[in-house]
Each structure stands twice: as C-alpha cells, then as structure tokens.
Amino acid sequence: MEHWDTDGSKSFCSNGSRAALAIHGTPLGPHVDVISSGEDIRLQRDGEAVGIRMPEGSGFGLRPVPLPTALPAGFGWIGNPQLVLRVPSVAAVDLAVFAPPLRHHAALDGGTNVNVVEVLAPGEARIRSWERGVEGETLCCGTGSAVAAAWLASTEGVSSWRLHTAGGDVVKVEVTMDADGAWRNLWLSGPVRRLGVVHPDPSLF
Fold first, then answer.
1. Closest-CA residue to 185 (of 52, 32, 46)
2. Domain range for 155
3. How many domains are contained in the chain?
4. Tens digit of each residue's pLDDT (9 = 90 or more) over 14-72
C-alpha cells in the first residue's frame, strides 16, 4: 500500500491504511499484516472500528525534542515525524499561526507534523493536528495521536488513552513504553466511515 499527500509527497499514513482496507473490503479477521509506504503494520477489526498496530523496532519511538520550546513537548518518529506540545486548552490555540513556524523549523530537515494536546484526566485528552503535506489542520492525524499518546504514557505513567479529535471522533491508543523511549504494541483504534464514492478519470491509470 502507498499513500500520497495532497502536495504529491509520499509518507506513511495510519488512518489511510485503516480506511483503505476497511473500505476495500479485505477480510480483517483476526488480523492482516501490511507493508504501508514501507512500514510494517497490522490491521484488525475492533467492533465498529479498525485498529492498527503502528511500526515499531529500530528507529521508531520517542526522541529528544530537536528545537527549543517554552511548552512541555515530545518528539517521535513513527514513519513520519511528530512534534507534540502540551497546552492548557487546544481550543485556545490559533493553530494556523502557531503551527507553521514549528512545522518548517530549521532544526527539522523536511519539517514535522505539529500536534497540541490538552490533558483532561488521566488517560483522556483533546488533540489537534497540523499535518505536513496537507499544510493545514486535519480532523484526525492517526500517527500524531499515536505519538502523542506514547509521549503522554511516558510522562504521565498511563498506558491507555482516549483522544478527542478535532473531527469529534474519539480514538483509543494503547502502548507499552520502554525506558529508552521505544514503544511496543502501539495500537490505535477508531471509527471508519464511508463518506462517498469517487470515480477517477481513466487517464489517471
């Protein structure tokens, strides 16, 4: 499976992987292993949702934050780069002003996705995400949610999180964190809904 962003670049997309297999109708029970934009993942049904086990192993996990920030922050690689910042209120952040300088920061070769999180209670938070390639806020960034939950697990000591996304859906993330910032069994699960049908022009093929 391959994913292209709206700017024509390719990168791993967890929600794209979940949606593509769910809509395509490929059997998902008990699970299916996929190489998605070069990353090894596992997909499985979770009731009405589709769950994804994120890439893990060498190179994946939390890393030192590569740029200065006045806010508590985490940074991780999950097949794409994710910067996570904890804020008092995600609704109060003007993301269109706040995120682009971080997304294009000189310390990050190729830039990064930018996520802001607001912890509501142990294991529960709100999240908003600004995605590179899209160059705007999206309703839910799966990889951003996963890294945000992994960082919160490492800082809050809670391994299971419910994240309220900008689109109104709740995604569930469970993870086992190692002391060095690597993760194991990083699972994200959320709803997949068919929004419509498109018929690409034959010339595209």
1. 52
2. 55-192
3. 1
4. 988 888 877 776 665 667 888 888 889 998 877 778 899 999 999 999 999 999 999 99
**Residue 110 placed within a domain:** yes
Tokens 């068919």, residue located: 194
Q: What is the CATH number of the domain that holds 106?
A: 3.10.310.10
The CA distance from 20 to 9, in Å, is: 18
Query: Global pTM?
Result: 0.91
Whether residue 100 has a cis bond before it, omega within 30° of 0: no
Is 112 a member of any domain? yes
Beta-carbon contacts of 4 under 8 Å, excluding residues fewer than 6 positions away, are 10
Hey, is 5 helix, strand or coil?
Answer: coil
Is residue 75 included in any domain, yes or no?
Answer: yes
